[in-house]
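Chapter review: from sequence to fold.
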Amino acid sequence: MQALPIKKSEVHCFYDLQYRWTKRSTDHGVEVRIELNEKPDGQMIIAQCPRVFRPDMVEDIIEYGREIGWTPERTGDPITTRLTKRGITPVV
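The token string follows.
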């Protein structure tokens, strides 16, 4: 998977690590992609979110991703999750 574009993404610092994230509208809501800023070729997490997306949701996605084994320091297939009113769940 290709690294996120610098011009169309934002950096978010969370627990002393910098993450780069971007969002785009889809037919079903908003898709958010997050990677470690220092390791753009590492594993990415993709979150399918509701249309009303707030930037503070990025921390929830990062935290949940780490809990389920997301390792952005290593190369790997992206992990896809879904953010709803009830919380975040993995997409299989």
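Two observations follow directly from the output. The mean pLDDT is 92. The beta strands are 10-14, 17-26, 29-36, 45-49, 79-84, 87-90.
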